[in-house]
Amino acid sequence: MAHAEESGPSPASAAEKPAAGKVSSCASPRWRNIGLLSAAWCFAVCALFINVSSTAVAARLFGHDGLATLPIGLYQLVSTGSLAAIARLSSAWGRRRVYVLVLGLAMAGAALAAVAAELESIGLLTVAAALQGPAFAAATSFRFVAVEFAGADNREAALSITVLGGAVGAIGPFLSAWLRTALPQQFVGSFIAMVGIYVVELAVVMGVALERVEGAALRSSEHGKLPSAAASRAARGEDVGVEAGEVELRSVSGSVPAVAFAGQAASKGKADPAELERAADPEAGSCLITGGASRADAAGGADEGGAGGELEADAKSAAASPDAGASAGGLDGGVAGRPSSTGVSRGGSTMDASEEADLRPAPARALRPVWSTALNFGFLGAAAVSSLTYVSMASLMNATPLVMLQEGLVFDDTVIAVAGHLLGMYLPSLFSGRLAKRMGPEMLAVLGCAVQAAGNAWFLGGTDLGTFVGAIVVVGVGWNFAYVGASAIIPGLVDELVSADMALLGAQGKHSAAAAASRAKAIKAFLIGLFDTLNLLGTAVVSLATGALLDSLGPSAFWLVWLGVSVGIFIFSVIYATVRARCG
């Protein structure tokens, strides 16, 4: 193989270089797309907080104190209920068409809200809020789409940039206040403005190159390649050439691909599971093996004088002489698809019999159902921390304007509190992504739970404007840390689960890269969908109940109940982070 390595790149690989250089020059569009997703999230949050700051107050003006939080509660409930349908439709139609559909519904809902305000109808206002729910459900996926553009090395930054867009959405409550009395009937102008916000959000979403991430996954499946780091780099416009230290081999005999043995090695700690992600189509007998210094392609039409010709000759020679051992790829001449008895040459070194035994395929075991991937402490703990802090924050956020009005403050004061809360929720994203990378996402979540509990306690300090604004702002900061930290855990968990499954498939010698692509997509869609569903479901339930709970308990007891909940969440987050640090 030394001669093959020194012979230089094959004509095929040389032809690939210009294309690779052209692709790598387009690396910057990924940040443009992430920026657009952040802007789209900004408008989604702006519309959300017009609803938060206006619907409950409008319902009270209509004479329905006990049902004041019903519209925003149903908004959250419909958001939760539509997550699964949005995921399925996105897979079938593509994300762009789904975004157009849900934003069209949101525009209709905002227009209906204006009619409801004109007629002072709580029923129409509730229906209008429900129509806007699916748009917010779809918007919650923006941060994970941004992660797909960014790749593994920039996950935290992509999350932070996307969530940060919500800070600009703080203009929403002020916009509602400015337009509330612009027309003779209160809040009609505020809800008409929401129609325009959804139109702008749709225009921004249409500018995102969604086909980059969707097309990369589709091409990976069609061509028998995994949705790997390499595919991710291609989606972002980066060089996807074979990395240093890898040799690509193609078995001319079409026997069991060497990736089967690589998978078994990975399961025994002898290979990096990430290597499996770079495997090519097993039906073509191709594979990647680490340890070489150059790329050799032995596919059918390669020059016999180059690396490909020598590999083909080696394979034929091995087939004719079974005792001679398999060269380079570790295949027994392509006849039996097993390591030879005399040793396997890999990257210039020879393995002994014990190492060869480690590389033999393991007995077949069925892959676990996709739903069972959620049954691990890493996912369940992250989802619990995120959803519980979301629930606590949402209840306090919905109750604060109502309590402020009860204490004699005016609507403009509630707008200041809601806008401050919104800034507290999203402005820390300027640095929370860096904190997640430095502290670890689990510890950032712990910090967030502690800060949120402190903000909750602040509510007990008085009934003046400063107390309300300060407390709700601190609650928002705590939510940001907990939400970003918990969200940053999920992509890493997906990678771990998919790598384990790919190692199992490779160990069985049944590795199907197209099936692996589908498996990775299914796990990712399920876990992210479940994560967001738990967040929104809890928020929907508590939003529906907040008005009645506040009326029955009174403000002081209400704050005390949620302070106890916040302290409990903090204790759980400490336990979760400790277990993750010790057990992984």
Describe this structure in words.
The protein is 70% helix and 2% strand. The strands form two sheets. Strands 1-2 form a two-stranded antiparallel sheet. Helix 19 runs antiparallel to helix 20. 56% of the residues are buried. It comes from Cafeteria roenbergensis. One of its GO terms (molecular function) is transmembrane transporter activity.
Structure at a glance:
Residues 298-361 are annotated as: Disordered. It contains 22 helices and four strands.
Strands, helices and their partners?
Elements: H1 2-6, H2 11-24, H3 29-61, H4 70-93, H5 95-119, H6 122-139, H7 142-150, H8 155-168, H9 171-180, H10 188-206, H11 210-222, H12 229-235, E1 246-250, H13 259-267, E2 286-290, H14 307-320, E3 345-346, E4 349-350, H15 353-358, H16 377-406, H17 411-426, H18 429-439, H19 441-458, H20 465-507, H21 513-553, H22 555-583
Antiparallel strand pairs: 1-2, 3-4
Helix pairs in contact: 3-6, 3-7, 3-8, 3-9, 3-10, 3-16, 3-17, 4-5, 4-6, 4-21, 5-6, 5-10, 7-8, 8-17, 8-18, 8-20, 9-10, 9-17, 11-12, 11-21, 13-20, 16-17, 16-19, 16-20, 16-21, 16-22, 17-20, 18-19, 18-20, 19-20, 19-22, 20-21, 21-22
Any descriptors?
globular, 2% strand, 70% helix, single chain, 584 residues, mainly alpha, Growth Hormone, Chain: A
Give the terminus-to-terminus CA distance: 40 Å
Tell me the series of helices and strands, N- to C-terminal.
Answer: HHHHHHHHHHHHEHEHEEHHHHHHHH
The number of distinct β-strands equals 4
Relevant CATH superfamily of the largest domain: MFS general substrate transporter like domains
Number of domains: 3
* Radius of gyration, taken over Cα atoms and rounded to an integer in Å: 28 Å
Structural class label = mainly alpha
Percent in strands: under 5%
User: What CATH architecture label of the largest domain applies?
Assistant: Up-down Bundle
Shape: globular
GO molecular function: transmembrane transporter activity
InterPro entries: MFS (IPR011701), MFS_trans_sf (IPR036259)
Protein name: Major facilitator superfamily (MFS) profile domain-containing protein
Keywords: Membrane, Transmembrane, Transmembrane helix
